[in-house]
Amino acid sequence: MKRGPIILSCCLKPSLGRGHLTFTCFSSFSLSGSSGQRSFPNYSPKKPSIKDSEFVHHISSILKQRCYEPLRQIMRSFETKFRPDHLVWVLMEIKNDYTLVMKLFNWSYMRRSPSLEARCIIIHLAVAANDINSAHKLFHEFWTSSSTDGNTLLVSHFLEKLIYTYKDWGSTPHVFDIFFQVLTEIGHLEDARKLFDKMLNYGVVLSLDSCNLFLSRVSKDIGGPLMSLKVFQEFSEVGINWNTVSYNIVIHSLCQSRKTKEAHNLLLQMELRGCFPDAVSYSTVINGYCNEGELQAVIKVTEAMLQKGLKPNAFTYNCIITLLCKTGKMVDAENILREMISQGVFPDNVVYTTLIDGFSKLGNASSALRMFNEMQSQDIIPDVIAYTALICAFCQNGKVADADQFFHELLNNGLKPDEFIYTTLIDGYCKAGEIRKAFSLHNEMIKMDLNPNVVTYTALVDGLCKQGDVETANVLLHEVREKGLILNIYTWNALVNGLCKSGNIAQAVKLMKDMEVAGIQPDVFTYTTLMDAYCKSGQMNLAHQLLSEMLQRGVKPTIVTFNVLMNGFCMSGMLEDCQKLLSWLLENSIMPNATTYNSLIKQHCIRNDVHAATQTCRDMCDQGVVPDGNTYNILIRGHCKARNMREAWFLRKEMVEKGYNLTLETYNSLIKGFIKRKKYREARELFDEMRKKGLAADEEYILHLCGYE
Question: What stretch or stretches form a coiled coil here (predicted)?
Answer without folding.
Answer: none
